[in-house]
Every structure is written in C-alpha cells, then in structure tokens.
Amino acid sequence: MRYISTRGSAPVLDFEGATLAGLAVDGGLYVPESWPRFEADEIAAMAGLSYADTAAAVMAPFVEGCLSREELRALCEQAYGRFSHAAVTPLTQIDHDQWLLELFHGPTLAFKDVALQLLGLLFERFLTGTDRALTIVGATSGDTGSAAIDAVAGRENIRIFMLHPDGRVSDVQRRQMTTVLSPNVHNLAISGSFDDAQALVKAMFNDRPFAAQHRLSAVNSINWARLMAQVVYYFYAAVRLGGPGRPVAFSVPTGNFGDVFAGYVAAQMGLPIAKLIVATNVNDILARALTSGDYSSREVIPTPTPSMDIQVSSNFERLLFDAGGRDGKALAAQMAGFEASRAMRLTNAQREGAAGLLVADAVDVDDMTLAMRWACEASGETIDPHTAVALAAARRADLGRTPVVTLATAHPAKFRDAVERATGRRPALPSRVGDLFDREERYDRVPATFEAVTAYIDARS
Ligand SMILES: Cc1ncc(COP(=O)(O)O)c(C=O)c1O
Ligand SMILES: N[C@@H](CCOP(=O)(O)O)C(=O)O
Tryptophan synthase beta chain-like PALP domain location, by residue (predicted)? Predict the structure, then answer.
C-alpha cells in the first residue's frame, strides 16, 4: 500500500514511512492511494472473530509491504490485551434501535487508547534495531494526550512533548498526563485553546529544519495509523448487529473529525453504513460546513465537552480531498486560502461527495444534559458528556428502524463534575486509575508562541 498527501506534492510513502512522518512535508495529510474493498462475504466472515482478529483482518491491506499478517495480529493481541473488557469495544443496547459502542475500556478510559496502544507498538517495531529516534509533538484537548503518553512512556528512542490548553481540560484528564513522570514525557500547558496548540504542532512540522533536526512525528489523528486503527470498531460493531446484510448508522461525537472519518473509510471499504451522524457541540464549524458549505472558524466557546471544543478540524481535509475528487493541487490552494482567512466554502463536488453518507447536527448543553438524564432513566447507563452529544443527535435523527450506534468515546469518570451536574450521579474512578489524585504532577506553563514552544523543546534535546 502506498500513501499520498492530500496536497499532492509530498513524496509517496509506504505504511512505515507514513506512520513515522505524521504530517506530510507539503503540509497535507497522508491517505492510502486507493481504498481497499471487502466483498460482502469477507465482511460476513468477520462474525465471531475476536477484536484482535477483526483488527488484523481489517488493517492488513493498509500495512501491506511493511508488516506480515502474523506480525500485525501479534501487535493487535498485545495492544488489545491491555483492555479491561474481553470484547475490547462492547456494544450495549439502550433502547429498541439505540446502541452504545463502549470505546473506553483501555488504560486511559477514552477511545484514543484503541489506536494509540497500537501506534506505540508500531513506533517500537519500526525503530527497534535502527539508530533512529523520534520526537513526538502533540496537541490535546485532554484525551489524546493521556493515551499517547501511556503508549510511549518509558520507550527508548522516543520523547514526547504534549501541549494542552491550560485550565481547559478536566482534572482527571490533566492528571492522567501530568502524573506520568518518565523522563521521556514532557507536558506543556499552553496559554490558549486546543486550536492554538494544534496550530503550533503543525507549524513545527512545517518548519522543515526544525522538523528534520528533531525527527518529528505525530500521535494526533493527522497520523494515518491512528485512523486506520479506528476503522476496525465500525466493522466489529456493524457485524455484531447483522452487517453486512443489515445497514447500521453511527452517531459520532466530533471535534477533529478523526473518529467519524474512520467511519467514512469503513464505508469506502465496503461496510454498509446507512448514515454517519457528525455530532458537534456548539462549536459547530463542521455542522455548518456539512449543511451549508460554510467552513469558517469562530472563537472557541468552552463547554462541558472540552474534548470537542475545536474550531479547526484537522481531518476534515481528508474528507475534502477524497469526497472532492482527490485533486491535491486544488485542495492545497483551498487550504492556503483557509489558513490565510480562517474561512472557506466547500465546492459542490465536496458537498455532494459527503452528502450521501454524512449528516451533521450541533447539540447545545441543554440537549446534551437531557440525553445524559434519558440514558440514566431509560437504561441505567451513566454516559459521559461527549457521548451524550452524539446520543442526542442519534435520538433526533430520522432513520426509521435502522439501528443507530452511538460511539461512547470516554468513561464518565473522566468528566465526573459535568456528569454529576447533569444527573446527580458522581461516577467513581475505575480502580486502574484509582490513586490518580495522590500522585505527584509535573508540567510547565508555556506561552502559546512558536518561539516559546520550540525553545522549550530545543532546551530538552
Ligand atoms: C471523549 C472524546 N469524544 C469525542 C472526541 C472527538 O473526536 P474526533 O476529534 O476524532 O472528532 C474527542 C477528541 O478527539 C474526545 O476526546
Ligand atoms: N479531542 C482530542 C483532540 C485531538 O484529537 P486527535 O484525535 O487529532 O488526536 C483530544 O482529546 O486531545
């Protein structure tokens, strides 16, 4: 499998190259040159497979030429062996046609573990026996940071610098990052929003001498391997609900557009998906873009769903590229316009390419709160606020009798203050993170400027 950049002028890479590169040198994102397709009988044959076996089957075409099927399977066994539920991502029925896909049984209690546990092992596999070392720079609104740190803490040849917006992540999220005291882990609390952090990360990649000197790599969903691993649970869930014979819809709490783009990829690979609901909070740039073509960024409004308080969604570029006809040069010009003005209009081709599969809905705090209460009353489930945004959108989508799977992206205990405010229930921290509040924290406050962040990294090299 070969990987090309969405902006059309970076070198074509194999899977290992794309994984280690993170962002492409032309500022674009790597995508497979073409989508592998499964026939209906191949999808049906996934029924009854374990999660690790499903993962190996779904991802095998993407790693072709770099990893054998056996190597991939062994890595999946190791990655998913750390999950606390035997099904890894179990399904729970909460109403006749409504299901939750629980993606929070990994070490840091959010869906990010599904991809990052594997990515940590892939980095190790590609670096072992070489003299290469990586500097990972990442931006987090709370969950990617802890999952990435857990995946690479203590690993040789890797250093990680994780930027989070100071004061805008939950106390559990912050402590899951800042109490990891391994010498290769550096946490930077920056004075700004997640978008500022993400822009700084992209600026570091785009500074070619800096990127080359430090051998930068990415753990955010700009890294293709992240999305590849997230494609798996769409297959796993759909097959359990009668796929491929019975189409299933998914409602996805969305910020950076990584998780829902993984669903888009599953559909391109042949999985019958009735609809993908792109559920945002009031930071609704994606909902506006998909409903009216207006992709213009506004001030970020802080909400009880901080992990989705995002106005510039990095993976949207992958959708614009694929749905718009894969014209890298045209997209490079469109993105340059967006980067200059923070606004752009989608082309007709991009809108039409997305419209068959994707619908969008922006959910405010009141409706999110009602969804949390409804889940408690209807099925006794305590859900986290991000999940509740998607559940609210799932319940008001008009999809007849199609089963709708809401992606439950975080454990409610990660956002226990917001959960308690909405439901009166305070979820207990699972025992695997039980002493989080007794651990020592270590992080530095750093201004949200390119100079300050790069100086911080230079000083620790
Ligand atoms: C709990 C939670 N839900 C949803 C999202 C949004 O996912 P994505 O950025 O892939 O759209 C995030 C952040 O990524 C998150 O941490
Ligand atoms: N909500 C995310 C934001 C970063 O998203 P990513 O999927 O691109 O890593 C977070 O929790 O950090």
Answer: 95-344
- Tell me: pLDDT of 78 over 80: yes
Query: Where on the phi/psi map is residue 424: left (φ > 0), alpha (ψ -120 to 50), or beta?
Result: left
3-state helix, strand, coil in the chain (%, to 5): 45, 15, 35
- pLDDT (tens digit, 9 = 90+) per residue, 43-54? 999 999 999 999
CA atoms of 9 and 379, how far apart (whole Å):
51
Is the distance from CB of 163 to CB of 138 less than 8 angstroms?
Answer: yes
Q: 103: which 2 tokens?
A: 């993606």
For the Cβ of 146 lying below 6 angstroms from any atom of ligand 2, the answer is no
- Please indicate whether residue 140, judged by its CB atom, sits closer than 6 Å to ligand 2: yes
Q: Ligand 1, residue 221: give the atom nearest the CA.
A: 10
d(CA 329, CA 366): 43
Query: What is the mean pLDDT of the segment spanning 121-136?
Result: 94
Question: For residue 312, what is the DSSP state?
Answer: S
Phi, psi of 347 (to 5 degrees): -75, 165
- Give the angle subtended at the CA of 233 by the CAs of 231 and 238, to the nearest 5°: 105
- Mutate which of 222, 254, 368 for ligand 1 pocket (most atoms within 8 A of beta carbon): 254
Check: complex ipTM more than 0.90: yes
Ligand 2 centroid to Cα of residue 308, in Å, is 8
CA separation for the pair 200, 192 (Å, rounded)? 11
Residue 308 Cβ < 6 Å to ligand 1? yes
State how far Cα 162 lies from the chain centre: 15
What are the chain's domains?
A: 91-109+225-423 (3.40.50.1100)
Would you please indicate which residues are annotated as catalytic (active-site) residues? 112
pTM for the model stands at: 0.97
Average pLDDT (234-243) is: 97
- Say yes or no: CB of residue 165 within 6 Å of ligand 2: no
Residue range 79-101, pLDDT digits in tens:
999 999 999 999 999 999 999 99
SS3 label, residue 311: coil
